[in-house]
Design brief:
- By secondary structure, the chain is α/β, with parallel strands linked by helices.
């Protein structure tokens, strides 16, 4: 089969489009013929050797996967070849979780081996491309906003980096579930697009102080919940943007992972700081999102699709932050 594989970490030049052996499945596995794989920034950090989850080399990445069941192991009876599926990347084992595309070879290939428990059927009205966007970005948004953040209808949510795949998902999910959404991004073009997917107000963080803008938009009240993929560089302004009793969801650290912490405002204003990692999210979230999408309650935001052979170009698009929403690869 053809696959994107790297034998060393580094820039996009280490990605090789090569012939590799089709995976041998075990008795409890299925072989999935990949139809679509959505890129994530974790794919880039793994390839560059900058992730706290280092990979064994050589490695085939690709965490978000949708396709058809090609073959089943001898113990598999609950799913048949030909079934259209999306893959939950978190494999739960007695020794702890491992992740397809991280600890195991992933979906940037024509075929991928997956434990049968990790494939979720998708209905005909959900495309492979759309399904592939769900496991990381949309599950992160749901798990963060609802399970971790306890978001309620009519609350005000501030979503940072709203032009990213996860940012678009958070805007859509918050709006669909009844919140007022304020979104930040680094270009006016992205902010115009964010408005079209549900943002009530937008802020260009490169040209204005977002804490001051939040104060103006909320008439000095602040926001209830912040969906933060930025980290350290947004920390002080995040605290200024929250109302008393507000919550910050720490989803990513693209703006830095360390900050001097002043406990005073957190204690005096009864603030909550909550970490969010998608690999702890229950599988029911993915199933719920498939159902919502099949009912037309939201449509994933896809910027561009590339053939698998052009993975380096696709990853460069993410590195440059020039995309709006998701980037898809099709073997």
């Amino acid at each position: 089969m053809k696959a994107i594989i790297y034998h060393e970490t580094g820039g996009v030049e280490v990605l090789k489009y090569e012939d590799v052996q089709v995976p041998e499945i075990g008795a409890d596995d299925v072989l999935v013929r990949v139809k679509a794989a959505a890129l994530n920034h974790l794919d880039l950090r793994l390839r560059a050797g900058k992730s706290p989850r280092p990979v064994d080399l050589p490695h085939i990445g690709g965490i978000d996967i949708a396709g058809d069941v090609e073959k089943t192991g001898e113990n598999v009876s609950d799913i048949a070849p030909g079934t259209r599926v999306v893959v939950d990347p978190t494999v739960r084992t007695p020794k702890g979780p491992s992740v397809i595309g991280v600890n195991r070879w992933g979906g940037l290939a024509e075929f991928v081996k997956v434990p049968t428990a990790n494939v979720v059927p998708i209905p005909d009205e959900v495309s492979y491309d759309d399904a592939s966007t769900l496991p990381i970005c949309y599950v992160t948004a749901w798990y963060g906003l609802i399970d971790r953040g306890g978001m309620q209808q009519d609350e005000t949510v501030l979503v940072h980096a709203a032009g990213s795949g996860t940012g678009c998902a958070a805007v859509q999910m918050a709006k669909e579930l009844g919140a007022k959404v304020i979104a930040t991004a680094g270009s006016d073009d992205k902010l115009e697009k964010v408005k079209k997917i549900g943002a009530d107000a937008t802020i260009n963080y490169k040209t204005s102080d977002f804490a001051e803008e939040v104060k103006n938009i909320t008439e000095g009240k602040g926001v209830d919940l912040i969906f933060d993929q930025v980290g350290a560089s947004a920390w002080e302004n995040n605290l200024k943007s929250l109302k008393a009793g507000g919550r910050i969801l720490l989803v990513g650290v693209v703006g830095g992972g360390q900050e001097t912490l002043n406990f005073g405002p957190i204690i005096m204003r009864d603030l909550s700081i909550l970490g969010v990692t998608v690999f702890r999210a229950p599988r029911k979230n993915l199933i719920n999102l498939i159902n919502m999408m099949s009912l037309g309650r939201f449509r994933p935001v896809i910027d561009k699709k590339f053939p698998l052979s052009e993975t380096a170009e696709a990853q460069k698009m993410l590195e440059d932050s020039s995309q709006f929403g998701k980037v898809i690869l099709n073997p």
